[in-house]
């Protein structure tokens, strides 16, 4: 009498060399995911957040930003001081500017710093809700912006250029973007330009008809980045999923093997000739 094949257990299938090798691979994948989760978690918590009120301390612009470099998020809104002079003919009007909820216009200028190499900073000097007043102020400043001076104000990140609205003049600007202003400035050969721009303090002298730009201190940010924590949790889930996939594939292989054995038994029983009476 031939012994019937005995179906393997799930544990026996998992201990086979192929599935042990797949387990090692799953461990390696899970380790990579765990490392990525730990990295995200480390970035989620700022162990040295800015001191409350740090943006209100006036700092030299050279300590906060470099020409051509992006302004780091903790330094957006930082009050700075910079010395230099405005460039005649480069005062321009930027529209769609709000002051205390009222829409209006900014008058902006090119400020050449006293750095050794030619360096420019875009400066917003004042606001008005009347376009005619803005144009007149820009014309007055272009005629004689004055000599060397030291400005204090708040450093703001570039808003990015945007094409003029349909039907508007080619010079119409609705975004405060040093990159866009650079296209209209004079004497820009080999000129280094700061990416952020400066909103001058209310105490700075303004052209006639302009009001000080409302530029409140930025809100204090949290030292916890919840988006990075979410990513860290995702990587932990992916690590667990690597083990689940190994288990699921091994179980599927075991179930198929058991089904094949059962099918073989049924076929063998159907092909066995009947026992003589």
How many distinct helices?
6
As for the number of domains, it is: 2
Q: Please trace the helix and strand order, writing H or E for each element.
A: HHEHEEEEHEHEEH
Radius of gyration: 35 Å
Low-confidence stretches: none
- Roughly how much helix do the residues carry, as a percent range? 25-40%
Strand content: 15-25%
The largest pleated sheet is described as: 5 strands, mixed, barrel
Distance between the termini: 18 Å
- Indicate the structural class: alpha/beta
Average per-residue pLDDT, rounded, comes to 86
Overall strand count: 8
Spatial order of the strands forming the largest sheet? 2-4-5-8-6
- Overall geometry comes to elongated
Task: Briefly characterize the structure.
The chain has 277 residues and is of the alpha/beta class. It has helices spanning 10-14, 17-44, 61-64, 131-143, 178-182, 226-271, and strands spanning 59-60, 79-86, 92-99, 102-113, 119-128, 149-156, 192-193, 197-200.
Structure characterization notes:
This protein is α/β, with parallel strands linked by helices. It folds into two domains: 10-43 and 225-261, no CATH class; 54-200, no CATH class. Helices cover 36% and strands 19% of the residues. It has six helices and eight strands, in the order ααβαββββαβαββα. The protein has helices at residues 10-14, 17-44, 61-64, 131-143, 178-182, 226-271; strands spanning 59-60, 79-86, 92-99, 102-113, 119-128, 149-156, 192-193, 197-200. The chain has a five-stranded mixed β-barrel with strand order 2-4-5-8-6. A hairpin with a 5-residue loop joins strand 4 and strand 5 (119-128). The chain is elongated.
């Amino acid at each position: 009498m031939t012994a019937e094949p005995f179906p393997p257990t799930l544990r026996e299938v998992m201990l086979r060399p192929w599935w042990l090798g797949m387990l090692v691979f799953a461990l390696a994948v899970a380790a990579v995911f765990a490392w990525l989760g730990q990295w995200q978690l480390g970035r989620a918590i700022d162990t040295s957040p800015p001191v409350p009120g740090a943006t209100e301390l006036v700092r030299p612009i050279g300590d906060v930003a470099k020409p051509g470099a992006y302004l780091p998020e903790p330094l957006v809104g930082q009050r700075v001081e910079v010395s230099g002079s405005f460039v005649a003919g480069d005062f321009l009007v930027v529209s769609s500017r709000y002051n205390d909820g009222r829409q209006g216009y900014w008058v902006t200028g090119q400020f050449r710093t006293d750095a050794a190499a030619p360096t420019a900073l875009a400066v917003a000097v004042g606001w008005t809700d009347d376009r005619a007043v803005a144009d007149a102020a820009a014309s007055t400043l272009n005629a004689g912006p004055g000599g060397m001076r030291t400005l204090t104000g708040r450093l703001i990140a570039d808003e990015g250029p945007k094409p003029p609205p349909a039907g508007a003049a080619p010079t119409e600007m609705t975004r405060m973007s040093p990159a866009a202003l650079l296209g209209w400035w004079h004497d820009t050969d080999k000129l280094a330009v700061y990416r952020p721009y400066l909103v001058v303090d209310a105490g700075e002298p303004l052209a006639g008809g302009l009001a000080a730009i409302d530029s409140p201190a930025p809100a204090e940010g949290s030292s916890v980045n919840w988006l990075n924590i979410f990513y860290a949790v995702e990587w932990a889930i992916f690590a667990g999923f690597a083990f689940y996939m190994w288990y699921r594939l091994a179980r599927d292989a075991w179930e198929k093997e058991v089904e094949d054995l059962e099918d073989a038994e049924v076929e063998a029983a159907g092909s066995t000739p009947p026992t003589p009476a």
